[in-house]
Each structure stands twice: as C-alpha cells, then as structure tokens.
Amino acid sequence: MSSPPKRLRKHSQNEFISLMISSKRLPSTSYNHITELNLSNLQLIKIDTFPFEYLPKLVSLDLSYNQLVSINIDWSKTRENFIEHLNVSHNKLETLLFLKDFKHLKQLNVTENFLRNTERFLSLHLCSTIEHLIDSNHDQIDDDQIKLDQWLQIIETKIDRLWALSYYDKYKQEIGNEKNHQMVKQILDDFHHAMIKIFEKQTHFSQMHLSPLANYLITNKISELCLSLPKIQTKKSLKTHLTEDFNDLMDVKTNFEPIKFLRCHQTNESDLTTISVRMSLFEPNTSQNILATCGGQKVCFIDCDTCEVSHLYEVSSLRSATTRKIKDKNSTINSEYFSCLCWIEITEGNEPLKVLAVGATNGHIYLLSHKWKIMFAHIELPSSSISCLIWDPSQPTTLVTGSYNTVRFLNIKPYLDRFRSFDRKQNKPATQFDYVESTLCENKISSTHVYHFDNGDDTVINITDLLFYPMSKDTNILLVGTTSGLFIIHDQTPKKLTFPKSMWTIGEYIESIRLINIQTRLIAINILGLDQIFCFDLEQSLPPSPQLHIILTLSNPYRQIATKMDVYVTTNENDNNNGSFECIIGSDHGSFFYHQIRMNAINNKKTKKATFDNKRYEITWPQVKTSTTTIITPSLLSANLNENYLCLTTSNNLICIYKRK
C-alpha cells in the first residue's frame, strides 16, 4: 500500500483552488497528509478564506506569482494554522496584516510586492517567530531589525509617557460613566492620532497613518493601556515596589541624598528580590546623567535626572534579533546572565559616539547604542564566561575581555565601522551605507592577543577586573586583577606584582582596580576578606622590582561577597597634582564606606610624593518592612559616581540613586 501523498500534483492543485474559491466543502480526509501546497501562477486576485482546517499538517504554502491584491486579515482565524514557510512573492500586496494569526511562521518571502517600508519591519513584531525574511532588497532587510527596535523604543517611552501624562486621567474619569461612551471614544481616537504624529516625526516612519499594520498594532497598544488601567503609573509615581517612606529612613550624613530606589531587573512581578544587579556605569563625558546597569537577563538605561528607565534590553529580545541572522541550535537563553559593562567612545565628526559593551556569563558580548536604542553587534566567545570588559583608548577598535583565567584582545573594528555608517545615514537619510562588510553577520571573531594566567601550581585563577594605565601617549599598561593577585601586561608575558612582606593578607582576591591620578601614578585596589583599600604608586611598582609601592591605605568594610568600588577624581584647575578624590565601597550588610581624600602634592627636584587628608563616613541601611514583604538587608555589589549622582547596586535587585546635595 502506497504512502499518502505529501504534495499536490498540478491538476490536484487546480482542483483544490477551484473548490476553495467556490466555497464547496472539501472531503474531510483527502488532504490530511499534505505538508506542502503550491498555489503559484494561478492568477489569484484575492483570498477571503482559506480552509486550513482541512490541512492540519500543512507547513509550507506557496502563493507566489499570482495577482493577489488583498488577503483577508481573518483568512486563518477559524482554525489555527501551522504554516512555517510562506511565499507571497511577486504579487500586488500592500499590507502584511493577514499574518496576525500566524503563530509558527519562520520564513517569509515578500519579494516584489507593493509593500510600504513600515509593513515589512512591523511584520517582525506581528510575528515574532519569523527567523528569515526574504526580499530582493537586501539592504532594506539589514535595516528591518533596527527600525523595529526604534519602533519599540518609541512605544515604551514616548507613547507610554504621553498616555500617562495627557490621556490617562481623562480616560479614567470618563470610563466610569456609562453615558459617556462617545467621550471615551473621542479620547481614544485623539490618542491614536497623537501616536501617529509621534511616529511620523521620525524619518523612517513617514505616512504611517496609511499603513493598515501600523494602525492595527497601535490599536492593540491602546487596548493594552486601557486594560491595564489600575497599573498605570505617572511620571511622578514611578513604580519602585518600596514604601513611600523608605528613603526617609535613610541615615545620611554625607554630601548625598537618596532620590530613588528602584527595581527593574526582575524576571516577573512575583519575584522581585532574587536578581543581583552586578554592575552600574555612568555614560562618560556627557552632560546627560545616563546610567547603565546589568543583572539577571536585563540591561537597563536609567535617566537619573528623571529616575526613569529610558530603555531596557532583555536576553530574549537580543537573541531573537541575532538569530534572524544566525541560528544557534545549541544556545540556551535561560543560562545567559549579564555580568559586566564597559563604555566605548569612537570618533565620528564633531560628536563622539558612545557604545555600551555588555558581557554575559555564557561568553556572549553585545554592543548597544543608547543614542539610537539599538543592538548593532553580537559577539560569541566559545567556552567563556565574561567577568570583565575594558576598552583601550590608545587602540579605539580593541575591546579586552576577562574570562576564567584568560584575557583576550578583540578587534571590533568591523562592527564599529558599520555603526559609524549607520549613524551617518541616520543623521543624513539620503546617505547610503558605505560599509557593507559581512562580518556583522558573524558572531564568532578571532582574538588578536590571548594571555593565560596561572600561579605555577594547581590553584585556580579567575580574572576579576581590568584597568588600562597610560604610560605614554601611545603606550598603555594593562593591569589584571585576579583571584590570586595583581598582574600587569606590558610585553608578551604577564608579570605578577607582589605585596610587601610586611603586609600579610588572607588572600589576594582583587575585587576591583581604579585609577586615581595619572600625575601621581596612583592606583587603588580592594581585596576580598581584607579591611583595607591599598593605594599604590604604579611606576615605582613596576619591574625589575615588581612589588606594590603602597603609599596610602583606606578603611574597608570586611566582606565575604566581592564588590566593585568606585573612585571619582576632582582636580585643581591651576595644578593637576593637587585635588581630591572620593571613594565608595559597600559591604555585605547594606552599609557602605564613603571616603573623601584631599591630595597635597609636594614636588621638588629630588622627590615627588603626595600627602593626604582623609575623611571617612559610614552610612548604615535600616531594614524596612513593606505591606507585603520584609526587605532583607542586601549586599552592595557595585558603586558608581559622577559629578552629580551616586549609584549603588545590590544583591536583591535594588538600584539606589543618590544626588549630590
């Protein structure tokens, strides 16, 4: 007995389409085994309904080379379809809204249709399962994910804010009155038009009001906002999951006052306190107070002036963006957690471009642009867990990573060149991409230099922190903190800097390395399990006598959990050797030490040293009970300072923002 056919012969196809058009009932078992259906070149003009119910195993449908002007948006509504491959190329379609009920679609071919630019990239939002979008215009395909990211960013920030500030109160007031249906409709219509105007101000989204798919998605967004009425938070009452009087309980005796404690890295609203926010970092060399944080499966950008999360990235969305280019069957999203951050500055015209590099525990690195709200590069280092990242200012296209016992130098020039080209095109829409290197589609890149660290025995060494020190205009030394001491890379072989024998330490687990002053060559390190911070003169600590020349120690809370300290330096305009610096470091039990140190340089022909006036404050953190749970005193994992704010991150998903008084 022959097996049932999986494809229709040509005469069967014609029979099938004639039955479909005439709405005759099909035999219930005739097509049960069909997996592929070719209805191309049949001069079809429109499709109102499609009998997916009679094709339960259909996964590939070809409607190419017809005259299709429209496909009913509800053509598959009566029964779930399992289509994975759909070809509608060489037709006259103007919208892809008919894809709204496709939940399994992986490949879509839309070549040669009358689609507006918005239709294609919005189809990626309508069908998040799409992995391959085929079109003859390949340059446009490269832009689709970027445009979708911009669309989502506008939805998440400007649209939500517009609703909260201008329409929420009106809608809330009228929705309770059954007689005011017309007024409610008018409010929602006005909001819809206002959304369209916001989008159409963007270069890529002109004439969006003519897009059926865009209007459908906007209507869905409005419905979502209306349904979530009780949860709407205005700008003045940003949800932080803490009691209103929490900040008032803080015992603050320094130059900082708490302005907002918030949680934004949780996986879901029912589990707010199990995520550790590993690191925070202010955007450098800017008047904007943008803070980047990483922890769990999220990277957040926070505007400290408004205490709002201006944008966030999740592992699932980042990986879905990259898998449109590359499909990694062995990757496990649930095992990917963000662990470290690094800002990169590249030159482009008069305005430097800022890039945030984010490392993850499974060896993945993402390059993000806060300016354009996009992820533009994805790098994968096999068999790695990224613990720290640093950028080399003397070699702007080099990114250095620390993973396990290995330091790698990566050449990221192809990614940065393409990003420069994208930025030029955004600023001048008429500009064409002048960089078309395929490297962007390759997430595995080679290392220019690789260094392995060991003690010469069986002890395990892991890299904990990295710092470049400028020895001259063109020469940098890389300091490498490890779980077994401090190393430098100046030539081909890493060398260890030993501690003075008079200074006994329980271990040499370097938690963080910070540059204090270039003129006095001052570096600060903190060590796990030790109650002091060491400040040493790097130049006097270098080979041939590689021993730390320590000139200052600061009190340091004892810790069993590693934490990143931060140093902020202010210099005297008339004398770069004079100035002051602040040092913040946290503890296991919620308190942190705040040091203010004033440097007085004494220079003469024979000697060059610095004296210090040190003031120390310790701030305690009371345990606070909310209406639903008890806030357990957290461990502070990182600190970051700029001229206006202090940020602390914790082991229980808190981001604590302080403002200078």
Could you explain how this protein is built, in words?
The protein has 661 residues and is an alpha+beta fold. Among the domains are: 16-138, Alpha-Beta Horseshoe (Leucine-rich repeat, LRR (right-handed beta-alpha superhelix)), CATH 3.80.10.10; 149-225; 453-587 and 591-632, no CATH class. The N and C termini lie far apart (86 Å). 18% of the residues lie in helices and 33% in strands. The chain contains 7 helices and 37 strands. It is elongated and about 90 Å long. It comes from Adineta steineri.
Biggest sheet features: 5 strands, parallel
Q: What is the general shape?
A: elongated
Q: For the largest beta sheet, what order do the strands appear in spatially?
A: 1-3-5-6-7
Mean pLDDT: 76
Beta-strand content estimate: 25-35%
| Alpha-carbon Rg, integer | 30 Å
How far apart are the termini?
86 Å
* Tally of helical segments: 7
How many beta strands in the DSSP annotation?
37
Q: Which percent bin holds the helix content?
A: 10-25%
In terms of per-residue confidence, which ranges show pLDDT below 50 for 5 or more consecutive residues?
1-12, 230-252, 322-331, 433-441, 602-608
Structural class: alpha+beta
GO molecular function: chromatin binding
Organism: Adineta steineri
Protein name: Leucine-rich repeat and WD repeat-containing protein
InterPro entries: LRR_dom_sf, LRWD1, WD40/YVTN_repeat-like_dom_sf, WD40_repeat_dom_sf
List the helices and strands and how they pair.
Elements: H1 10-22, E1 36-38, E2 46-47, E3 60-62, E4 70-71, E5 85-87, E6 107-109, H2 117-126, E7 132-134, H3 138-175, H4 181-200, H5 212-227, E8 256-262, E9 277-282, E10 290-295, E11 298-303, E12 308-314, H6 315-323, E13 338-346, E14 353-360, E15 364-369, E16 374-380, E17 386-391, E18 398-403, E19 406-411, H7 413-427, E20 447-452, E21 463-470, E22 476-482, E23 485-489, E24 495-497, E25 510-517, E26 522-527, E27 532-537, E28 549-555, E29 566-572, E30 575-586, E31 592-603, E32 608-619, E33 624-625, E34 630-631, E35 636-641, E36 645-650, E37 655-660
Helix pairs in contact: 2-3, 2-5, 3-4, 4-5
GO molecular function: chromatin binding
GO cellular component, one term: nuclear origin of replication recognition complex
Protein name: Leucine-rich repeat and WD repeat-containing protein
